[in-house]
Design a protein that fits this description.
The protein is an alpha/beta fold. The chain has two domains: about 5-90 and about 305-475, DD-peptidase/beta-lactamase superfamily (Beta-lactamase, 3-Layer(aba) Sandwich), CATH 3.40.710; about 90-305, D-tyrosyl-trna(Tyr) Deacylase, Chain: A. The protein has helices at about 5-25, 30-40, 75-85, 120-135, 225, 260-275, 305-315, 320-335, 340-350, 375-385, 390-395, 465-475; strands spanning about 45-50, 60, 90-100, 105-115, 140, 145, 180-190, 195-200, 205-215, 225-235, 235-245, 255-260, 280, 285, 295-300, 420-430, 430-440, 445-455. The strands form four sheets. Strands 3, 4, 5, 6, 13, 14 and 15 form a seven-stranded mixed sheet that branches. The two termini are about 20 Å apart. Mean pLDDT is about 90; it is low at about 1-25 and about 480-490.
């Protein structure tokens, strides 16, 4: 059949209401059945399946439709970073003495500067301060000065995405982002004393924690819903008050909060750790930049990018993804790092790789966005390019393995593809997505992408669709012929 005639026939069938039937005839019956059972309309779903080494897909449904990918967007950010910066790329955090050190006393300020280390954890921050102490500084008579100037990013409103400003996943980028500004609260049943203990890490004097949670013997269930919380953050202090109940059957449970400004949190943590290692400090805290006469004391490198992207993808860490994304612009165009520079650097890289993503909208590189868009076709092209890339091992290793680790460790423990699929998932209200690689029963590797944008994706409705597609890719991925290049999906 001539191409134009075939195109007319497909469009005519869609207009007659047969579009869904046409698509269902091309997708595996279990996938079609899962979609029907979910109540999710086909036009809200985008699917692509392609052998990793192939040039064309075997399955493409609405593949060119721009979709919100949620955290699946992290695959673009991390793959670009691995190629543009290199797997061995590191960030640095430095300590400088702004004054002389005599007999253990710094007669002046201590200045800390970072270039956006995404993994400046509590432990790494402690190592930095331990290094200052080891170099003979015991007493600081000046202030703590924080150089956060590398980022030219407006601090913005951390609650703008979902009105949850205290949730750690909403932590905004900062050039000197220490421990993601996180306060960890552990709810620990103390059966012997018939109470619930609250353990705080780190323990900061600026954060008051009030415990009115009682212990009971009911079933654990949704333990979060049974814990009532009241959070107040004013100026340089915060108050966390907890009430409700926790079942003894729950064991230890943990929640994290981001409740202080970057400056206040860093200063508070500095005072606590500096005191613990035997140092003395009674000064204030302020922002500043490194002067020409600053004396370098310690340089603390971050883990390599290859390790950082594992945390970004396996645990879907939004704050780290945003820091990595900003590093793209800073590396390509210099300081200060901005979202505009990162967008420009990313698109230049895509052009150099001859990857055309005309529908791409990227806001911050993490997927925590209402406006970010990409298509299943573009994600498939991205994953195919990554398969041929020198950084392929690092990239694939960064993705959760279904039923084994990361965000998918508890899903699919006894499925045929358990341990055989490296998949990055994405979830925000009204959005579910997945993309990655599946090893089939014959040893071939398949690219699988599925994006769903519809209100009915809540409460796990999308999981059977994803599962049916992954099962098919694992066991029967080569049974369908490749689609002709002029195939039209029902949404076209």
């Amino acid at each position: 059949m001539h191409r134009s005639l075939r195109l007319i026939v497909v469009i005519a069938l869609a207009l007659l209401g047969a579009g869904e039937g046409v698509a269902a005839g091309r997708i595996p019956p279990p996938v079609a059945q899962a979609l029907k059972a979910s109540g999710i309309p086909l036009e809200s779903t985008s699917i692509l399946v392609q052998e990793a080494a192939a040039d064309r897909p075997v399955l493409a449904i609405n593949a060119e439709l721009p979709m919100n990918p949620a955290s699946v967007m992290k695959l673009l950010t991390t793959y670009a970073a691995l190629e543009m910066l290199g797997p061995a790329f590191t960030w640095t955090t430095e300590a400088f003495a702004l004054g002389t050190v005599r007999e253990g006393t710094l007669e002046g300020d201590l200045l800390l500067r970072s270039d956006g280390d995404p993994k400046l954890t509590l432990e790494n921050f402690w190592l930095l301060l331990r290094g200052v102490h080891a170099r003979g500084v015991r007493n600081i008579r000046g202030d703590l000065v924080l150089d956060r100037s590398l980022y030219g990013v407006d601090s913005g409103n951390p609650g703008s995405f979902d009105n949850e400003p205290m949730r750690v996943y909403n932590t905004l980028p900062d050039a000197l982002l220490v421990n993601h500004k996180a306060v960890r609260i552990s709810f620990l049943p103390d059966i012997e004393n018939k109470r619930v203990m609250l353990l705080t890490e780190p323990t900061l004097t600026e954060v008051e924690v009030i415990n009115n949670v009682v212990l009971d013997n009911g079933t654990c269930g949704d333990w979060r819903a049974r814990i009532k919380q009241e959070i107040r953050a004013e100026g340089n202090s915060a108050r966390l008050a907890f009430a409700g109940s926790l079942s003894a059957q729950c064991g230890e449970q943990v929640r994290h909060y981001s409740i202080l400004s970057p400056q206040t949190y860093t200063a508070a943590l500095f005072r606590q750790l500096w005191n613990e290692i035997g140092g003395r400090f009674s000064g204030g805290v302020r922002d500043g930049t490194v002067p020409v006469n600053a004396r370098p004391l310690v340089t603390q490198p971050s883990p390599a990018l290859s390790e950082v992207v594992r945390d970004v993808n396996k645990y879907s860490n939004n704050a780290m993804a945003r820091q990595v994304y900003l590093a793209l612009g800073a590396s390509a165009f210099g300081a200060p790092a901005t979202l505009e520079k990162s967008d420009r650097a990313l698109r230049q890289w895509l052009a150099q790789k001859r990857l055309e993503f005309p529908e791409l909208v990227i806001e911050n590189g993490s997927g925590l966005s209402r406006i970010e868009r990409i298509s299943a076709k573009s994600l498939g092209s991205l994953l195919a390019a990554a398969w041929r890339s020198p950084v392929m091992p690092e990239f694939i290793a960064s993705m959760p393995v279904v039923g084994v680790d990361g965000t998918l460790r508890r899903r699919g423990k006894n499925l045929p593809y358990t341990g055989q699929a490296h998949i990055k998932g994405g979830t925000i209200n009204g959005v579910r997505g997945m993309a990655g690689y599946v090893l089939d029963a014959t040893g071939r590797r398949w690219i699988v992408v599925c994006l769903i944008n519809h209100p009915k994706v809540h409460n796990g409705n999308a999981h059977p669709v994803f599962d049916s597609l992954l099962r098919w890719a694992h066991s029967r991925g080569g049974t369908l012929p490749q689609l002709p290049t002029d195939t039209v999906s029902p949404s076209d």
